[in-house]
Structure formats: structure tokens, C-alpha cells
Design a protein that fits this description.
Layout lengths: L27 E5 L2 E5 L23 H16 L7 H29 L1 H8 L17 H4 L1 E2 L1 H8 L4 E14 L11 E2 L9 E4 L5 E2 L7 E6 L9 E6 L2 H14 L5 E6 L5 H13 L3 E6 L5 H15 L6 E4 L9 H11 L7 E3 L5 H7 L9 E4 H17 L6 H12 L4 E3 L9 E2 L2 H4 L26 H4 L7 E3 L4 E4 L3 E5 L12 E3 L1 E2 L8 H10 L2 E3 L7 E11 L5 E7 L7 E10 L2
Parallel strand pairs: 4-8, 4-25, 5-17, 9-10, 9-12, 10-11, 13-15, 20-22
Antiparallel strand pairs: 1-2, 3-7, 4-6, 12-14, 13-14, 16-21, 17-18, 18-19, 19-23, 23-24, 24-25
Helix pairs in contact: 1-2, 2-3, 6-7, 8-11, 8-12, 11-12
Length: 579
């Protein structure tokens, strides 16, 4: 739908094979002991939203059984077996937990008998060596070089034989390492991976013949900021909000608030359940029925309501889409503080990357990138909100109404921020995501583009939000864009090309003359270069999944799918926090 501090208990949503650009990779989630797991889900549907009990350690897999218990207890309540006093409420909780526990034992036992392999997926993620992320000098080389080739092959539907390489990354952070840019590149004086090894999908757990020592990578520190200065708002339905919750939990920093306007016909019990579940996961969320039957107009009216609900600490109210993401919350807050004056009527946004969109729609802040309005300007919008709605046409978007209302009722000029991204491009986002830019916001990752955000996030539990999409270049001609891809340039391509401009891998939103291909994007993205041909000029390994293991280490799986008759190639990184 469009309107124009990471914690260890972070959870992610399931992405089905139907949604994925890799039909062989069916993905899901599992959580245990405050850790996040991306696992092979098999035929079991893992929940995208957890009940409040999960925050107390029950785990996401309990949700279907919790729902069963809720329904049973609801029937008993109707029969007046329970009353509403506190003592009976406690007994109700105890009975519910008994029902949940009994159900889990029965079902897991049945699964173990009927489907022993699938039961293993629930019990165990990809098997990895066991070590302490706080004691890296004691890494066991024997364990470090072990591989369960069959399990990996089944989880990712790999070819019968495939090429494999692994490297352990010791991650550390430094204040002296700066946020990256397109022109910058972190040069390493060694190769990222040892030699490839061919393994077979039916092999027993084995010892790798090529195994390199751990590699230390240094990323920028992720500074602490005051999240209370931010108040976000979106207009969406509960189904989409459930789907968006895992990524919202990543960027909705402690202290920040979120207001959600639901459609007028939304089920109020569902609204209450989603709000309760999100709050139980630590998010300060308020869900209300939108004040206008037209959800686009409700999007605009978020500003007035956020201004009414503001706290003494609120400096910015932000309207956004439900598929807008903020890769680094602290980066966003610090950039707003450094660049703009929240004590004055101020608004911050960006144009579409496709200038033809600007020509068709107008000069305005495009809502998917986020529209940031200071509280003094929000006060002006609140006063004029009704007249702005009355003047709007039925086909006006919420971001268009917002921009028009501000321009007609204040002297504030739109501040075009270079690090907000509407992402009005289609097709392959590789050139953008590997460019080295450090975005404040991203959009359209689940619609016009396909670059799912959730699998990227676990590594931030090791190296912080600032290291997401951070780039390192190695002597084996490989570049790691952390959490998105690993690319190896062929020998005839100059390595300096990575710093010479964005590789244009995407397409126009609409068809047009060939001469427009670059010119429409350069106003926002600056210099572009032609895309490199896959397998001729480069080899691209896209992140297909990542996991937080029980010991706190993070496993990333990057895969280049083999063409017909060719082996898949798998690169595995294991991130460990250095002392």
C-alpha cells in the first residue's frame, strides 16, 4: 500500500517460496532463547506475529497452539466457567499454558513419528560449529571446517553437487571508520575466501579441505540516539501491518512512536490484537480507525493526529508507507539533527528517482521515502487540515495532499534530502544496493523490486545497523555488500569501476525513448554506468538467507544459481563478535 536499537529479541517474518525470486528456496523463521533463526520451514507455516507471551520466552512457534488455547478458553468463558476476577484470570493463564504445552508435546511427537526429517527442521537450524562469540581465540579448527552438505542442500534446494566456500568474520566497530559513500571502498589486503570445494548433496557431515583463518572486518560504530524525538505514521490494513511488523520492529527504536490508521471497515478486534502483539514486542504503537473513508486522505491526516499525540520530546512527525524501511535509525536521527532545524517550520523529503514521475505528478515529497515534518510545521498543518482535505481531488495521493497543504499554508520550502530513496525503479536493484550509498530510507523492496529486507538484518546483531550494505573489497576481486551480495569481477574489468558510479541494473517505471534511460535518474543518482554482463563481466552471489545461531554468531548464505547443467555455487560467511 502506498500513500505516497536493534535488540536481541528481534523476530522476522516468513517469506514464502511464491514470493521469493528463488523458487527453490522456501524460507521461514524460528526463534529460541531470544535469538533469531531463518530456517527451512518445510510445510510448516511459521507465524509472522508473535503473541505477548513470546516476549516472556515462549517462542514464536507457540502461536498456533496459543490460538487454540484462546479459542478453547473463550468457549469456557461463554459457559461462565471463568469469571473476570484476578484469581480466575490467573487460573485461566495456567490452564492456557497447560493446553499449549500438551498440544506441543502431542504434535511434535506425531511429527517425529510421521515426518522425522521435518521435525528436525523445527528442532535445529543449519548445523554449525559451536563457539563463543566473545572468545574467538579458542575457535576449534576441526569444528570450523565441518560441513553438513546434505542439510545445506536440502534447505536451499541446491544442485546434486555444488561448489562451496566458507569464511569466518571477526567483526569489530570503530569510531574512526566513517559511513561509506559511492566513492569510498574499504580495501582489504587478502582474499575473502579460500579455494572452492565440490561437495555432494547426499554426503554425510564432512571436513572441508580448504579452510581459512578468521578474517577481521571493521565497521562504523552505531551511535546511541534519543528515539523519543521521532513519531511515525502510516495508513494500512491489518493484514499488511502483520506482514510489515518484523521490519518495523527493526527500525522502530526504543522511545519512538508509531501511529497506524486502519481502513474504516477494519475489524476492531483484529486491530486490538495486532496492537497488543506489537506492544508486547516492545513497540510503542497506536492503531486507530482512519478519520476518512479514503485511506489516502487518512494518510495526510496522520500529521494532525500525531501532532495531537506528540510528547514533549517529539521533534519530527513522519508519514511513510507500510513498505518503507530505515536501515539505520541512528543515522536517520543524526542526519536530521545535523542538517535541519526542528525548532522551525521545516519539512524534509525527496523527489522520485525517475524524473518523469516528477513531471507527471509534480514537485513534491514522495511519500514512500518518508515525509519528515517538524512539530512547528505540523501545528500549521493541523490547523489547516480540514480545508486541505476539502480542496483535494479524489485522485490526489496522500503525499500530494501533504505537499500541497504545506506549500499553500506556510513559507517552508521542501528540503530535498539526498539520502532518502523513493526507489521508483523496476527490476533488478543490484546496482543501487551495491553502490556504497548509505540510505536513510528505502522503499518498494517488496513490489517493484525484489530485495527482501528481513534476511539482511540478522548481521546487525553482530556489527550494528551501520554495517548493513557496507562494502569491502578483497584481493580475490570480490566485493562484499554486507547483507545483500558478494560480487566477483572478471579479470578484464578494472576494479576501480566499483567507485566510478552506480551500475544501472534497473528499468524505467514506464516505457519510453531509449535516450531517457539514464537522464531521468541522474538528477537524483548522479553518474550512472552501464550494467555488467553476468558470467561475462562478473559473478553475483545474492544473499538467500541468514540466521542468528544459539551462540549469537550469524550465518549468511550467498548463492549463485547454476545455469542448466551447471552446479550451484555457495558462499557462507559466519559473523562472530570480536573481543
Amino acid at each position: 500500500m502506498s500513500g505516497g536499537s536493534y535488540r536481541s529479541h528481534y523476530r522476522v517474518a516468513s517469506i514464502s517460496a511464491a514470493e521469493s525470486n528463488n523458487p527453490r528456496a522456501e524460507q521461514g523463521i524460528r526463534r529460541r532463547s531470544s535469538s533469531l533463526y531463518w530456517t527451512q520451514a518445510g510445510n510448516f507455516e511459521m507465524p509472522a506475529i508473535k503473541l505477548g507471551d513470546e516476549a516472556n520466552g515462549n517462542g514464536g512457534i507457540l502461536r498456533p497452539w496459543s490460538q487454540f488455547a484462546d479459542k478453547a478458553l473463550s468457549k469456557w468463558s461463554e459457559a461462565e466457567i471463568f469469571s473476570s476476577d484476578d484469581g480466575n484470570s490467573r487460573r485461566r493463564v495456567l490452564v492456557k499454558r497447560t493446553l499449549i504445552g500438551t498440544s506441543i508435546i502431542a504434535v511434535i511427537g506425531l511429527l517425529a513419528l510421521l515426518f522425522p526429517h521435518h521435525a528436525r527442521h523445527i528442532q535445529n537450524a543449519l548445523p554449525l560449529p559451536s563457539w563463543s562469540s566473545h572468545n574467538h581465540p579458542t575457535l576449534d579448527t576441526q569444528q570450523l571446517c565441518s560441513l553438513d552438505a546434505a542439510h545445506l542442500a536440502q534447505n536451499f534446494s541446491l544442485t546434486p553437487s555444488y561448489e562451496f566456500a566458507r569464511r569466518v568474520i571477526l567483526s569489530t566497530n570503530s569510531k574512526t571508520v566513517q559511513t561509506q559513500s559511492v566513492e569510498s571502498m574499504n580495501q582489504m589486503d587478502e582474499a575473502l575466501f579460500p579455494e572452492w570445494q565440490t561437495v555432494y548433496s547426499d554426503m554425510e557431515p564432512m571436513h572441508l579441505s580448504h579452510c581459512a583463518e578468521p578474517l577481521t572486518l571493521v565497521a562504523p560504530e552505531t551511535p546511541e540516539v534519543d528515539g523519543r524525538v521521532m513519531f511515525f505514521g502510516m495508513s494500512t490494513n491489518m493484514a499488511r501491518l502483520r506482514e510489515a511488523t518484523p521490519r518495523i520492529q527493526y527500525w522502530l527504536h526504543a522511545g519512538a512512536k508509531l501511529l497506524v490508521y486502519a481502513p474504516v471497515d477494519e475489524d476492531q478486534k483484529e486491530m486490538h490484537d495486532v496492537e497488543r502483539q506489537m506492544r508486547a514486542q516492545g513497540m510503542d504503537v497506536t492503531i486507530e480507525i482512519g478519520p476518512d473513508p479514503n485511506w489516502v486522505r487518512s494518510y495526510f491526516l496522520l500529521i494532525r493526529r500525531m501532532y495531537e499525540l506528540r510528547s514533549p520530546h517529539t521533534q519530527w512527525v513522519v508519514t511513510m508507507d507500510d513498505d518503507t524501511v530505515f536501515p539505520s535509525f541512528s543515522r536517520m536521527v543524526n542526519r536530521l539533527t545535523d542538517r535541519y532545524d526542528a525548532n522551525q517550520p521545516t519539512w524534509v523529503g525527496t523527489l522520485s528517482e525517475d524524473f518523469s514521475q516528477v513531471m507527471n505528478i509534480g514537485w513534491m515529497a514522495f511519500g514512500g521515502a518518508g515525509i519528515f515534518v517538524s512539530t512547528p510545521l505540523a501545528a500549521i498543518v493541523a490547523v489547516h487540515a480540514d480545508e486541505c482535505i476539502a480542496a483535494a481531488d479524489d485522485y490526489d495521493g496522500g503525499d500530494f495532499i501533504t505537499s500541497t497543504c504545506i506549500m499553500k499554508n506556510s513559507h517552508a520550502k521542501l528540503n530535498l534530502d539526498p539520502d532518502l530513496f523513493q526507489m521508483d525503479v523496476r527490476g533488478n536493484p543490484q546496482g543501487l544496493m551495491e553502490s556504497g550509498f548509505a540510505p536513510t530510507s528505502l522503499h518498494h523492496l517488496y513490489s517493484w523490486l525484489w530485495a527482501p529486507f528481513e534476511p539482511m538484518l540478522p548481521v546487525t546483531s553482530i556489527c550494528g545497523q551501520e554495517c548493513l550494505m557496507y562494502r569491502w573489497q578483497f584481493t580475490d576481486r570480490m566485493m562484499l555488500s554486507n547483507g545483500f551480495s558478494i560480487v566477483r569481477l572478471k579479470e578484464h574489468i578494472d576494479l576501480g569501476i566499483w567507485q566510478s558510479g552506480l551500475e544501472k541494473t534497473w528499468n524505467l517505471i514506464t516505457d519510453g525513448p531509449a535516450y531517457r534511460e539514464n537522464r531521468v535518474f541522474e538528477h537524483k543518482l548522479s553518474r550512472l554506468r552501464p550494467d555488467l554482463q553476468e558470467d561475462v563481466d562478473k559473478e553475483s552471489y545474492r544473499l538467500e538467507n541468514s540466521y542468528i545461531q544459539e551462540d549469537g554468531s550469524v550465518q549468511q548464505i550467498y548463492i549463485k544459481r547454476g545455469s542448466e547443467g551447471m552446479n550451484d555455487r555457495v558462499l557462507e560467511l559466519i559473523w562472530v563478535g570480536a573481543e
